[in-house]
Amino acid sequence: MKKEITFTLNNEKVVVEVDPGWTLLYLLREVFELTGTKEGCGVGECGACTVIVDGDAVSSCLYPVLEAEGKNVITIEGVAASDGTLHPLQQAFIDNNGVQCGYCTSGMIMSAKALLEKKAVPTEEDIRTSIAGNICRCTGYVQIVESVQQAAERMKK
Amino acid sequence: MSNYEYHKPQTVKEAIGLMESLENAKYIAGGTDVIVLVKQEKLAPANLVSLRNISELVYIDTKDGLKLGAGVTHSAIANNEFIRKRYSALADAAGAVGSKQIRNVATMGGNICNAAPSADTACPLLVLDAKIVIDGKAGKREVPIDDFFLGPNKVALNAGELVTGFVLPDLGSNTGSAYIKHARRQAMDLPIIGIAARAAIKIDGNEAVCRDSFVAGNDISQTIKRLEDERLVFEDVRIAMGVVAPRPVRAKKAEEAIKGKIISEKLLKEIGEIAASESQPRDSIRGEAWYRREMVKVLTGRAILRSIGRIVGPEQMTNPNRLW
After folding, report:
1. What is the mean predicted confidence (pLDDT) over A9-15?
2. Which of these, B70, B172, B234, B240, could form a disulfide with B123 (CB 3.0-4.6 Å)?
3. Which residue of B has its CA nearest to A52?
């Protein structure tokens, strides 16, 4: 039986009919067509589906859609400024070659964003802990960590 | 996409009522186990009763010991300054579960009720003498954690009952605890084994004066060497082991053997041997039985040392106001 939920998606209030058996990921990709959020493993192991709910990074593939009611959800599509200017994290990933195939990138950026919102000057360990649940199969994570470090520095200014 | 109805009660009472009236219903908290099982078709509930919107399940009460709501997330525990200092083993374990994404939603109650032999928070709760608070249509009851685990994914809950919280006693300022998760990688992995320890120490002649020798060295094992012939003894020790039996277990013989003894490296080695003899590990994809048993020997001593470090080490001291 479909139910109606209301929540904030990328700073806009949305009202949508959902099936209780959906995950948040399904709603984002299949209904809102926000396909920047990726499905990797589908069981919370890989981090590709990471979105920010009320300030915390969560795996949207394990998030029951009805729990989104009243929440503030940010996806990769809501990270850049409304005029299209990239977020410092996005720019830093480009500048530091933090992206290779790109599949993990949305999740990486969401995890890093959640960290920087809580801790503007993170240690390398903070960064590595925050993205420990985001698996990248292309790189050795070094450029990704450097990207986050540079974004944090740019955001301080 | 699955076929279940999803219910969001606001109170424990309402949740218990729903559980009673609905067919084929299951509680869900953070969902990091339940949704996975549903997706893998190992579980096909017709109804999920969510415990996420019940505010009475979310509390961290530090008056007189520690009381935790079952709905408290692993992140909340790992980041809580009081728990890190006074119930360090629990903070160690909560911070070692899964990833940030998992810890932000996964709850203590869920980790315990799922009752995997590898559940990280189970060993700390065993050494910290936790009691589980359970509510159901027959009313409230408390169960010591050691009686709660029955086997893999089996716990002492009757139909419709749910865990509402945990009660941990005040363990005194001469107590430290630690949990060591031994895994191939630090995140998103289950432990090959997990060892929790809690140690309370005392000095013969109860004069409590500040001793510089305690805090001079960084490495606690160096401190121990200096103290070996002195009268620093174990007052009480708890050891719990994960993944070495069908359920998380205490190493009770080892605990008994260590009580009242002068702290020394030799003693810790012996204790490790006894703990290993109490373990019944099996071969699995993560590690073979012999290896697990060897690691019990190593990590038991290490976990006890780390616990002592938290009493006497300046960095992570349980109670910074109390130096000998």
Report:
1. 98
2. B240
3. B101
